[in-house]
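hey so u asked for the seq, here:
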Amino acid sequence: MYELGEVVAERRIVQKLAVAVAVMDKIDRGELRLDQRLDLSADIILGGSGIYFLHTVWGDEITVANFLTAMLLVSDNTAVRMCGRVVPALEINEILAAKGFTHTRVEPVANPNRFFLGVTTPRETHDLLWRLANKTLLSTRSSDFLLGVLRWINGYHDGIRRDMSSAERSRVATKYGADYDSSGAARHEVGIMFDATGAPTLTYAFFADSLGDLDNYGGTHPAVRAHAALGRTMFDTIARTTNPAPRAHHSVPQFRPVNGG
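ran it, structure tokens below
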């Protein structure tokens, strides 16, 4: 079931994008820095999606920029806990409320620096993305940082960007999320497509829930196949058009392989 209504809630999926916005808002206010370092200790590690749990040994000091990149590019779960160390749950909710989001919230727990990812809706996620792309949600610098991560070609490829060239993929900022609960599997994907000049041209927020195939997180899941077909169709529709009156532009460097040195 695909939902585009206002009351649909999702849990532990694309909500990481809203958490990243809250962190960048605190940076915009001068209360936090992208280069601020935190220790990555063993007791904060979560499994599931991501990269930090794969290290098997911990003790690094990593920057805020580091764990935000991991959270958005590979949906790292440990990175969510790292965000909570710099922006507690109640502050995240206050920031999101101040930005006009009514339903988008994290779920606080006893530890003020921990939380469940809570809920959002397709409509509010669409609004968040469009305002991010037009650089009215955050500062230009913060917007460029988040969009740069979301558009980079090393991110998620099974869905919207599956049947695209590397150049085409770089024109799509996307965030995927997969989970399941008592109603079945959920496979969501949200993002922005840009024209050749870097102007935001199309925003999508696909929420699919109550699905089967719970343990299939790959590209063969029916919902993910549908995302791939939709992505190709949407991109072909806007590929030769330009947005004549964008509020902002965003570009990413062309991918160039590097063979050491």
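Helices lie at 16-28, 64-73, 77-86, 89-98, 122-133, 140-151, 166-169, 222-238. Strands lie at 2-3, 37-39, 61-63, 105-108, 115-119, 172-181, 184-194, 200-211.
lmk if thats what u needed
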